[in-house]
């Protein structure tokens, strides 16, 4: 399953909002430096879907606010 994620890096509070079946907004405290925010987003998604981190892959948008992740259930 592919999902679209709009990211806010460097936020004061972490949150995940489900906008539709395949669209999410995620705010993380980590800054968008050296992949730190992308790593934390994967962790947040893994917690939300109750899956191991290895099943969440960033497909597109590693340096953009709009990203596409693959969830391997």
Q: What's the layout of helices and strands?
A:
Elements lengths: L1 E8 L5 E6 L2 E6 L7 H14 L6 E5 L5 E6 L2
The largest sheet is:
5 strands, mixed
Under CATH, the topology can be stated as Conserved Hypothetical Protein Mth637, Chain: A
Name of the CATH homologous superfamily: YggU-like
- By DSSP, the count of extended strands is 5
Mean pLDDT over all positions:
96
Terminal-residue CA separation: 8 Å
Question: Into which percentage range does the β-strand content fall?
Answer: 35-45%
Specify the overall morphology.
Answer: globular
Question: Given the structure, what is the number of helices?
Answer: 1
Radius of gyration (CA) equals 11 Å
- The poorly predicted ranges are none
Largest sheet, order of strands side by side? Answer: 2-3-1-5-4
Question: Secondary-structure element sequence?
Answer: EEEHEE
Helix proportion: 10-25%
Tally of distinct domains:
1
The level 1 CATH classification is Alpha Beta
Architecture, CATH level 2?
Answer: 2-Layer Sandwich
Structural class: alpha+beta
């Amino acid at each position: 399953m592919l999902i679209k994620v709009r990211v806010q890096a460097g936020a004061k509070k972490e949150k995940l909002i489900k906008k539709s079946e395949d669209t999410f907004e995620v705010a993380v405290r980590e800054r968008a430096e050296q992949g730190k925010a992308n790593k934390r987003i994967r962790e947040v998604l893994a917690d939300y879907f109750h899956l191991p981190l290895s099943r969440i892959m960033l497909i597109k948008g590693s340096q953009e606010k709009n990203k596409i992740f693959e969830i391997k259930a």
